[in-house]
Amino acid sequence: MSKPTLLHLGEPIKWNHDLYVKLDETFDIVKNECLTRDSFIQALKERKYGDFYAMYRPFWNSGIEMGNWDRELIDLLPSSVKIFASAGAGYDWADTEYFAQRGILYCNSAPACTESVADAAIWLMLNTFRDFSWSVRAARSLDPDQFWDAHRNIPAVTHNPRGHKLGIIGLGKIGYRIAEKAHIAFGMKILYHDIVQKSPELEWSVGADFYDNLTDMLAISDCVIVATPFGGSKVLDESIISKMKHGSRLCNIARGKLIDEDALISALESGQITAAGLDVHYNEPHVNPKLAGMNNVVVMCHTAGASIESHIGFERLGMENLLGFFETGKALTPSSEDLSLVKVTAAPLPAPSLAPPAMSDLTAQVLDALSSGDSVLSSDAFPSVPSTTVKSALDRLASRDMVSYQTLDREEAVLTEEGKTIAEEGSHEAKVFEAVQKAMEGLKIGDLQGIVGKESAKVGAGKAFKEGWIKKEKDLLVANTDSITDVTREQLQTIQKTHTFPDAKTIADLRKRKLVVLQKVISFSISKGPKYAKEFVKEETDLTAEMLASGSWKNLKLKPYNFKALGAHAPTGALHPLNKVRHEFRQIFFEMGFTEMPTNRFVETGFWNFDALYVPQQHPARDLHDTFYISDPAVAGKPRPEPEAARLASKSSKSGVKEELLDYEAYWNNVRDVHESGKYGSIGYRYPWNPKEALRLVLRTHTTAVSTVMLHKLAANPRPARYFSIDRVFRNESVDATHLAEFHQVEGVIADFNLTLGGLIGFMETFFAKMGVHGLRFKPAYNPYTEPSMEIFGWHEGLGKWVEIGNSGMFRPEMLESMGMPKDMRVYGWGLSLERPTMIKYGVRNIRDLLGHKVDLNFIESNPAVRLEKE
Question: What sequence ranges are listed for the domain Aminoacyl-transfer RNA synthetases class-II family profile (predicted)?
Answer without folding.
Answer: 579-864
